[in-house]
Design goal:
This protein is about 40% helix and about 15% strand. By secondary structure, it is of the alpha+beta class. Belongs to the protein kinase superfamily.
């Protein structure tokens, strides 16, 4: 069997194929699957029979999605940006989960537990601060999740660019994360992988939680014994390998997120290993004097969320009941875009100031070069007699 040839593309007025023509062409795209050795020598036309299957682009094209670029990659998944021709040519994000990666089968617990949970829970969620799943389908090898596209990337990249947030933005984003968690926890659902990379920003810079690969439902039953998520955001009980309350583990992760919001730094030094991190989690000795813009309300909420004993740690309702969060709930959040853009402007101002400092330093070094030497009384110049 030979791969089907792509149809010849017609051209739009600007000389490029139309979106519909690109879509039709991609529907015939295939990739080799395996080869079976034939009985004839390669020199006589033997050497094996190659079989083909549709590429992921072809599968998506048959469902009216035209892939444009890669947005991200994970261990068993990748996220693509695509145009949906059945949704008025809107951009969508497509999470593609591959059950087979580099000839290795994805772990059985991933296929039998985590992936089915994500497909069961995420599409049912409806909250303004949670990424919406528009559709899902399966081609036998891959699972496709069609998601609302969030054009401003994730919060990690934003903070890497601008540093610590101003208080109004930190307060509003923290409230949005907490309110989405309240929605989940009220249904006995926990995320278990809250981190900056899983907080996306829509066109108006509102938070959208994504990636429910470690989601857990029915949290009323027993303590959880599945140790998942990112170590940087993990609560002490998880690092200790003890049974844990996943709702309180979400609370701890929110504490890490808030700390990064207000300082631009990670709270704990992961390079010290589990024992070193656990010691830091017990002591909670943060350099607050260094972060002069951090307010007492911000600091107090961080310390409450970092309660070592999860039984004493506040749940999401207690967090939302704090004065700082109540104030956020009363805030008009229609100006979050302006607040976020202000962060970019401040970053540019800081870069300009650093450049001016570098120029001043160069001028000082140049002056030392001109006036340096052992002569005295003449600005450092030396004269030969």
């Amino acid at each position: 069997m030979f791969p089907a040839k792509r149809p010849r593309l017609g051209m739009a007025e600007d000389g490029r194929p139309t979106l519909q023509e690109e879509l039709l062409a991609l529907r015939g795209e295939v990739e080799p699957v395996s080869s079976r050795r034939g009985s004839q020598p390669r020199s006589e036309g033997g050497g094996g029979t190659v079989t083909y299957r549709p590429t992921y682009r072809a599968i998506l094209a048959k469902n009216n999605y035209l892939v444009r670029k890669t947005l991200g990659n994970g261990s068993y998944s990748k996220v693509k940006l695509a145009i949906s021709l059945s949704r008025n040519k809107e951009y969508v994000a497509i999470k593609i989960v591959d059950r087979w990666v580099r000839r290795n089968r994805a772990p059985s617990d991933f296929q039998t537990k985590f992936l089915p949970r994500e497909l069961d829970v995420w599409p049912r969620l409806r909250h303004t601060n949670i990424v919406r799943v528009l559709d899902t389908f399966d081609d036998g090898r891959r699972v496709y999740m069609i998601l609302d596209y969030q054009e401003n990337g994730d919060v990690l990249r934003y903070i890497q660019k601008v540093g610590a947030l101003n208080e109004p933005l930190a307060q509003s984003w923290t409230w949005q994360v907490c309110d989405a968690c309240r929605y989940l926890h009220d249904q006995n659902i926990t995320h278990r992988d809250l981190k900056l990379e899983n907080l996306l920003l829509d066109r108006n810079f509102h938070i959208k939680i994504c990636d429910f690969g470690f989601v857990k439902g029915d949290c009323l039953a027993d303590l959880s014994r599945t140790y998942c998520g990112s170590k940087s955001y993990a609560a002490p009980e998880i690092l200790l390998g003890e049974p844990y309350d996943p709702k309180k583990a979400d609370s701890w992760a929110i504490g890490v997120i808030l700390y990064i919001f207000i300082t631009g730094k990670m709270p704990f030094d992961e390079s010290r290993g589990n024992a070193g991190v656990l010691e830091e989690q017990r002591r909670l000795e943060f350099p607050w004097r260094k972060y002069k813009k951090v307010t007492p309300d911000e600091r107090d909420l961080v310390l409450r969320l970092f309660t070592y004993d999860f039984r004493m740690r506040p749940d999401i309702h207690a967090v939302l009941a704090t004065p700082w969060m109540k104030q956020a709930a009363r805030t008009d959040m229609s100006d979050l875009r302006d607040l976020a853009m202000e962060g970019y402007r401040h970053r540019k101002e800081r870069e300009k100031e650093k450049e001016r400092e570098r120029e001043r330093e160069k001028e000082k070094q140049a002056e030392k070069g001109v006036y340096g030497g052992s002569g005295r009384g003449t600005g450092g110049r030396t004269h030969s007699m």
